[in-house]
Description:
4 domains, alpha+beta, Collagenase (Catalytic Domain), six-stranded antiparallel beta sheet
Amino acid sequence: MKKMTLMLGLALTSISINAQTHQHAHESPSDPNFCGSSIEQNRLFAENPAFAFQDSIDQAQFQLDYENYLDSWSPDDRSLYVIPVVVHVVHLGGAENISDEQIFESIVRLNEDFNNENSDLGLTIPEFEGIIGLPNIEFRLATKDPAGNCHSGITRTYSSTTYDTGMSGGGHPIVEAVEDEQGNWPQNKYMNIFVCIDPNGNAGYTYRPANWYPAGRMYASIFMRHDYMGSIGTSSIGRVHTLSHESGHWLNLAHPWGNSNTPTDPANCGTDDGVADTPNTIGWNNCSNVYGETCGSLDNVQNIMDYSYCSTMFTEGQAARMQTALLGTAGQRYKLSTPANLAATGTDGPGDICEAKFSANYRSVCAGTTINFNDESYHAVTGWSWTFPGGSPASSTSENPVITYNTPGIYSVSLVASNGGSSESITAENYIIVLPSTGTTIPYSEGFESFTDFPDNNRFILDNEANDVTWELNTTVSHSGSKCISLDNYNVTNQSKDGLMSGTIDLSGVDPDDAIVFNFKYAYRRQTADDDEWIRFYISKDCGATWALRKNIHGDDLGPEISGSPFTPATEWDWYQVNITNIYADYFVPNFRYKIEFESDNGNNIYLDDINLYAASTADVNEIEFGESISVYPNPIANESTISFFTPQTEAYSIVLYNALGAQVKTIFIGDLQGGEHLIRWDASDLAKGVYILKIESQGQMQTIKVIKE
């Protein structure tokens, strides 16, 4: 074990342990606009008058086309229109990365609404049953990409643009982030649906057919909050018609009261949606009265384009208007359902089998654990042949087999998917990692000196959410010895998380009344004062099936110093020690694991070294002599102030004051201090009013305290 001296102790732990919620947590705003289509469109037109002018021309032409279409159209017409669809999931690895199952279900629900197959259609009140419209539109996930290659119709992009800021000028950041990763899926070939954490404060929005946006790009897509897609997964049954509502806008339907986002406004009686059989209404934001009258006649409260949340139907006039949009030149919607485009996008049939693919609920487990495998091959798969080296059973013909692994090791998985006429295969090497159910004994120490390749998928396993830069072995710097691990995080802006997960460690022999000592060293500096990057420390008592957060370190606490260039530690003073004090007896199990996770935010490089875990009763005396906490008085400080703290033994110390931006403003003390109580008085008369950070360091340990000068 690489020994260290704990200078200021657990009470002087190097970083504040307050658990805080990251401002970029995977959460959507609690109260979104139900629909932001009119909001986003009006905002964009205010910024770009030329767009508004072109839209006015397009809408005037559309109205003529609609009236001509009504002259020849009958509500009993049954011309089926097929629209190729691609769903782009933009995520940060959280719940917003919705499952394929939720996407499939949302498309099923969408098709039900557009083909009068929705289960709640029968709840439509009798007064409107006679004008229920049949759009007769089928939305199919594409089976070919723009180059004609086999595709699932779903893309997934790891990007912080999942907090969508909407279109501005000639660009749309969330669209461009997907284009960078997945290429351009032209909106005159596909209806693109973007799923994200927050579509600019809305449950969903889109833009109506128009020629102010380029038909060959993806700007006029539908943008959906993940928990409003369908009715399962992160969504709920009350939101089942939201995607249908936005698809109605995409096909040039307005809200029943017109193009605004102000339902219940009495002034809405004077506006209209351009459809003759939708009665004028002020609009509804609840379902309190399906027989409501707000503008002198019975409202169509159950219309899918209203906000009532008891939607059941489109009207005949709305169905005709949407079909007009699919035949019109605005946005080149007419190209979507042509036979040539259906063939090009693979939506003229079920699609050929073209890729074998699978997933598993766990990738690293302890011996004796059962893993659920799920086939994700496409398309039209009817047969499966699995091979599981090291698993029991070792083979399977089930679609979604359940396999038990009893022997530690690293195993591949193979699948042959077929449809009776053709087949595709895949072998995933090193796919399943099986760890010993009883781990390595303590005392445990890791300085990375014995590694030549990292990770080894035994002592350490990496969790790289964004599949980009991650932890790697570093042989040029270290806190002690000649190696450490580092993350090349300079200028990484996507808020990606990179986890370092341990193998199993046996804590079952630790006395329940004993304490666990866990510490590690890190070196880090922020790139700017605004960076808010995080270290999170987790532990597991079930071999990593679940993880419990035990420490958060971020912002000023993670690193008060700032370096505008890529950071490399140069001295021992660049290293800080983290002490974990809350590993309790219920975690004294034979398959204990820990995880150190770093979250990026446009910051700088970080380095880890000297990880130690042992029972307190086995430690040397200099490792358990803990001091009392630092204090500064008075605080707010006067012209003269006093720092009080305790040191367990003689060591070299530095006491430095930083301003709120992380810049050093005063060196208060540098030198040796003997063990014992210390009172250091210092002159603060030259300080300007403001907030400061006082930092005491010794042998890689750091304690900070906030002080105020009034």
